[in-house]
Structures are given as structure tokens and as C-alpha cells.
Design a protein that fits this description.
Elements lengths: L2 E3 L7 H12 L4 E4 L6 E2 L3 H8 L5 E2 L3 H10 L8 H11 L5 H20 L2 H6 L3 E2 H16 L7 H17 L1 H5 L12 H24 L7 H6 L3 E2 L2 E2 L2 H24 L1 H7 L1 H14 L14 H13 L8 E3 L3 E3 L2 E3 L4 E3 L2 H4 L43 H18 E6 L6 E2 L5 E2 L4 E6 L6
Parallel strand pairs: 1-2, 3-11
Antiparallel strand pairs: 2-3, 4-8, 5-15, 6-7, 8-11, 9-10, 12-15, 13-14
This protein binds protoporphyrin IX containing FE (HEM).
């Protein structure tokens, strides 16, 4: 097994990891960083073993310690009975039948949110694409997933708070040896962000538990009485799950869509094909569920965005007990770096891996092989619950926006990612929206 020193890791972590993956060409490589020495696992075969065996490879260490400081007992970070209970409560809310049933309500919420862009478009005012996407996605999400129990403004405040958490946890990931009592840069901002989330979420949970309405939204479902591992579910567990669900249902979608603006500016041919499809399929009408099957190229663009900038770019695991993976002995407690970002950019699995080419996902063409060369939604028992929801919500957002406006990027195209728990462009795009049509009703 190769051992690799990574001089560029701190300066350009993502680039350095992809280079290490390419050099090892699918073999497991031990990275010489600090005392942790994690193993970079990139081959689809090894990834399948790791992701499908959560008893041997758990969500501990690195990223998870940071996430746990914000949402300690949530579905996103737990294992065992606590995780199972949350997953059992939440899974029925995300089946394709449920998502299909709520699609038109979600489309209306998106349309209402996009209406607010008419004014800046008319005046030629520059808009902050990240803030506008956050508003649109929060409006869609609070209405259909959270039954309007959290306001759009509070959901946006939570997105901002999670943005702080996602970046301010990085010093502790980079310096995992630092004890909790040692203050690190970012700790204060992290604590303030957690307090903001509590201020929003706790009153909502208390109200929902006092007055259960039997609703089919995430909050009602999580607040319904249930026993976890023989004990009544605690307020802390509910709080962690609600906070994690607000964060994951918004931040991931916003992060992926944030890359669309530089892509459209840099790839005229992609933009033209996307506009042509939306013009032809939607043709100025309000976007609805019936349009989705026809938005084939839109889906291909989304699949390619998820290949190059998977929001869940980093899903590490820790070995429980000594393990042998692909012939390599991995000691108990070792960290295993699993990264859709790295594998999805490796030359061993993708031709011209750095090129943005939606044609790779043409449904008429071959499917990407092997299976775990493309896994933006993870895999195994912890596979993303929101995959189908994203597949509906993201085309609705894109089609609703581009049905009415042509975005023009203000300033240079920059594809530099900003490191955090999710992956967004370092420079949030500023746009001028050129109106192509009036709002349809
Ligand atoms: C582009 C959008 C999204 C991406 C790229 C994404 C990615 C991921 C990934 C990689 C995992 C696996 C984590 C692991 O293996 O440790 C995951 C888990 C999860 N995702 Fe997503 N996600 C997205 C959207 C969503 C949405 C919209 C929701 C909810 C509405 C959601 C809810 C969850 C939940 C609850 C889990 C934890 C599942 C478990 O551990 O049982 N995700 N997601």
C-alpha cells in the first residue's frame, strides 16, 4: 500500500486528494497528515464494502465530531437503535409516491418565491445568487416538508447558521488532536450558530408536542410519541433530527445549484441547450409535475453538477476493530476517507474527468460503470433519504427560473470550491436577470 505525503493538503485539499487518488489508481493509500494518517479509499469495490458495512465502518472521527457538536443525535450522525428509530420515522416521508404527491405544491411554492425576482430583473439590479437560492429552496422546503411550522425567514437564518457551522468546524477537522478545552478559531462563531438554531427549533418542537396535529410533515412525525431503545424519545433527539433535516434538506440543494451559474457562463453550448429545452417543454406555463419527465437535458446537467460538485463531498468512516480492506490491514480506530468528489474526478473511472459534459448522463447512452464510481448520494444503509426529493425539486427550481429569466454572471467565472461540510463556490455568484417572459399564472 502506498504512503503519500501531502504537502499541498492544507493549501488545496481537494486537488491534493484527487491527485493522491489518481496516483494510487484505485489502490488504498495512507496519507501522511499529522498523527491521524487516514486511509484514502477510492475504488468502487472498496467503497461498496465500507458503505455497506456500518458495523465495521462507523461515522466517527473527523467530520462527524464536528457535525455531532451541532446535531449530536441526529439521523445524519448516529448509528444503531437511535439512528434506526429516526430513519423509520423519516423514510416514509420521502418515498417516490409521497414526493410525487407533493410536487405541485412544491412547484407553487417555488413559483411564489421566484416571483420576487421580477422587480430586480425589471430594474436590472444585481442579485446575490446564493441568497436568492436559499430563499427559494427554503420556501419550497418549509411549505412541503415542514408544514409551514418553521417560517421561511427562520429557515434562511438556519441555513446561514449551518453555513457558519460547516466552515467553522474545519479548524477542528484539520487539528483533530486539539482538546475541546483548547479554544480554536471558529469555536465562538460555531457556538453562536448552534444557539441560533436552538432558539428557532426548540419552541417549534415544544408547541408540536403540546398540541399534536397528526400532520404528515417532518416535525409532526418526529414529535409523535415513540420509544427509542426502550426509552421515550427525548427532546434532544427530536431537536437534533429537526435541525439536521432543515440543514440537509436545504444546504445540499442550494450548494449543488450554486454551481449552475458559473457553468452557464463558461459553457455557452450547455446554456443554449438547457434554455432550448425549457422553452420547448415549459413554454412559459407554470412549471408543474407533468413537465418533469420531459426535462431530460435538465436532469443530465444536474447529474453532471452532482458529479463534479457533490454537496456531500466527504463522508468519512472509522474502522471498528482491525479490518482488512482490499488486502490492506486497517487498524482499529483508523479514519477512512470516502469522498464522492475524489472518486467522481478520477481518471481511472471517468474520461476527461474535469470537463463539464452532461452528455455522460444521456439516458440513451451507457450507465456509468462501475456502480460506486458515481455515488453523490452515498450508499448502503445510510444512503441519502432525500435523493428522490432532490430529483424533483432541483429541476423545478431550474425550470421555473430559466423559464422566466436568463442569468448573466457579473464578474469573472470562478470554479474554486470553498471547503466546508458541503461544497459551494468560494465566490458566491452575483447575477443580473434578463427577463424573457412575464410570470404565468
Ligand atoms: C443534492 C442533494 C443531496 C446530496 C448530494 C446528498 C448527499 C447525501 C449523502 C452523500 C449521504 C450519505 C451520508 C453517509 O453515508 O454518511 C446523505 C445522507 C442523508 N441525506 Fe442527503 N443529500 C442531498 C439531499 C438531501 C435532501 C434534500 C434530504 C432531505 C430532505 C436529505 C436527507 C438525508 C438524510 C436524512 C441522510 C442520512 C441517511 C442515514 O444516515 O440514514 N439529503 N445525503
Amino acid at each position: 500500500m502506498p504512503l503519500r505525503k501531502l504537502p499541498g493538503l492544507l493549501r488545496h485539499p481537494l486537488r491534493a486528494l484527487v491527485e493522491a487518488g489518481n496516483e494510487a489508481n484505485g489502490e488504498i493509500v495512507r496519507l501522511g497528515v499529522g498523527s491521524v494518517g487516514p486511509y484514502l479509499v477510492t475504488s468502487p469495490e472498496h467503497l461498496e464494502t465500507v458503505l455497506h458495512n456500518p458495523e465495521s465502518y462507523v461515522r466517527e472521527g473527523l467530520l462527524w465530531n464536528g457535525v455531532r457538536r451541532a446535531v449530536g443525535e441526529a439521523i445524519l450522525v448516529t448509528e444503531g437503535p437511535v439512528w434506526r428509530s429516526s430513519r423509520d420515522v423519516l423514510r416514509p416521508l420521502f418515498t417516490s409516491a409521497r414526493v410525487n404527491a407533493m410536487t405541485d405544491r412544491m412547484a407553487e411554492a417555488i413559483q411564489d418565491a421566484v416571483d420576487a425576482l421580477e422587480e430586480p430583473a425589471r430594474d436590472g439590479t444585481v442579485v446575490d445568487a446564493g441568497a436568492e437560492l436559499a430563499r427559494i429552496v427554503c420556501q419550497a422546503t418549509t411549505r412541503v416538508l415542514f408544514g409551514d411550522k418553521i417560517s421561511v425567514a427562520d429557515a434562511v437564518r438556519m441555513v446561514d447558521a449551518f453555513g457558519v457551522i460547516a466552515t467553522e468546524m474545519i479548524p477542528r477537522i484539520v487539528a483533530p488532536w486539539a482538546p475541546q478545552w483548547l479554544p480554536l478559531p471558529g469555536d465562538r462563531a460555531f457556538a453562536d450558530a448552534v444557539a441560533t438554531i436552538d432558539d428557532i427549533v426548540l419552541p417549534v418542537i415544544r408547541a408540536a408536542r403540546r398540541n399534536p396535529d397528526g400532520g404528515d410533515d417532518i416535525i409532526s412525525a418526529l414529535c409523535a410519541p415513540r420509544r427509542v431503545d426502550g426509552e421515550e424519545v427525548t427532546e434532544k433527539q427530536i431537536r437534533d433530527d429537526v435541525a439536521a433535516m432543515v440543514s440537509t434538506s436545504t444546504e445540499t440543494t442550494i450548494a449543488v445549484l450554486s454551481w449552475l451559474w458559473p457553468v452557464l457562463a463558461a459553457h455557452r453550448e450547455v446554456a443554449d441547450q438547457l434554455y432550448a429545452e425549457i422553452d420547448q417543454v415549459v413554454a412559459g406555463a407554470p412549471v408543474r409535475r407533468a413537465h418533469l419527465p420531459e426535462l431530460r437535458y435538465t436532469r443530465m446537467v444536474l447529474d453532471e453538477l452532482l458529479r463534479l460538485w457533490p454537496a456531500g463531498w466527504f463522508i468519512p468512516r472509522m474502522a471498528v476493530g482491525d479490518q482488512v480492506l482490499g488486502g490492506t490491514r486497517i487498524g482499529a480506530g483508523s479514519t477512512i476517507l470516502v469522498s464522492p468528489y475524489v472518486t467522481q474526478r478520477m481518471a481511472a473511472y471517468w474520461s476527461r474527468p474535469d470537463d463539464f459534459d452532461p452528455g455522460r448522463f444521456d439516458p440513451a447512452g451507457p450507465k456509468p460503470e462501475p456502480h460506486y464510481s458515481y455515488f453523490p448520494f452515498g450508499g448502503g444503509p445510510h444512503r441519502c433519504l432525500g435523493q428522490y426529493l432532490f430529483a424533483v425539486e432541483a429541476p423545478l427550481v431550474i425550470a421555473t427560473l430559466l423559464n422566466r429569466f436568463r442569468p448573466e454572471l457579473v464578474g469573472p467565472v470562478d470554479f474554486t470550491p470553498r471547503m466546508g461540510a458541503s461544497l459551494r463556490p468560494a465566490t458566491e455568484a452575483k447575477l443580473v436577470l434578463r427577463r424573457v417572459r412575464q410570470a404565468a399564472s
